[in-house]
Structure formats: C-alpha cells, structure tokens
C-alpha cells in the first residue's frame, strides 16, 4: 500500500492544482493550492525527499497567509513576501548540490512571487512559466510522471489565461 500511496497523493495534488488555476477568486485559488501543497509535501515526505517536502511546507504557509489576506481584502506586506523568498533561498543553500538543483528553486520563487500578486491572470501566467521550468527539470532528471503532471499544469494555465481574456473581452462588449 505504501508503494502506491505517494502516487495517489501526487495524482490528487495535481488534480486539485489544475482545478485551482481555473478559479477567478484569488483566495479560493490559494486555498486549493494549499491543499495541493499538503498532498505534494506528504508525497515527498513518504518518498524520503525531505528537501522537496520542506519547500511544500513553505508553500503551505504562504498559501494560507496570502489567501487569508486576499479573502479579507488586505494586501500582504512586502516584508512577508521577502520572508518567504528568504526561506526558499535558505533551503536552497542548504539542499542544492548542482546547478540543476536550482531549477525547482526558481519555480518555487516564481510561485511565491506570483501568489503575492492580486491578479489571478498574473498568477496563472507565472504558474505556466514555473511549470515549464519544472517540466524541463523533470525531463532532464527522468521524472516522467511528474513531467506528465507539468504538461497538465501548463495546459490548465493556458486554458485559464484564455478564459480570463474571453471574460475580459465579454465585459468590455
């Protein structure tokens, strides 16, 4: 059962992440991404990938704080964004051994800065770019199941971006 559990958690995390990108309210998007990060973090923990699990822990806290601020109509202070970026960079310094190890760090930084933005369209574009970085990384390291997930993330982000432009266009007309 433990052999299949990480894959189930990863599949559920991916499904929830893809759904999150289709939402138009930032706080709801971040709530689903929080759940997705819990599942991804659990997957990595079970697999013994503690560096990746620690990145997800930072993402869980980030999604919670940014989501609560968004729901309450507050802007998250710049210093808090800096704290999350610093946490990611410290974890990177501790865990990175090769230049390739920095690719997921770049993706984590993109996700962090994008989720601080107000616009869900900006979040989707940033997620698209971050997923592309992760797709390249997963291809190079041979993580083909994760690469497949990245393709779904990229597709979902593209669909969400197109839908947001169509909504904007219909509001103008």
Helix and strand topology:
Blueprint: H1 5-20, H2 26-46, H3 50-71, H4 78-95, H5 102-116, H6 120-141, H7 144-172
Helix pairs in contact: 1-2, 1-7, 2-3, 3-4, 3-5, 4-5, 5-6, 6-7
Give an overview in words.
The longest helix is centred in the C-terminal third of the chain and has 29 residues, at 144-172. Helix 3 runs antiparallel to helix 4 and helix 6 runs antiparallel to helix 7. The protein has 173 residues and is mainly α. The protein has helices at 5-20, 26-46, 50-71, 78-95, 102-116, 120-141, 144-172. The chain has one domain (5-172). The N and C termini lie far apart (54 Å).
**Which structural category fits the helices and strands?**
mainly alpha
Radius of gyration, CA atoms, in whole angstroms? 16 Å
Number of E-state strands = 0
Question: How much strand?
Answer: under 5%
Number of helices: 7
**Major β-sheet profile:** none
In total, the number of domains comes to 1
Shape: globular
Helices and strands, in order, run as HHHHHHH
- Show unreliable segments: none
Query: What's the pLDDT, averaged over the residues?
Result: 87
DSSP helix fraction: over 70%
Give the N-terminus to C-terminus distance in angstroms: 54 Å
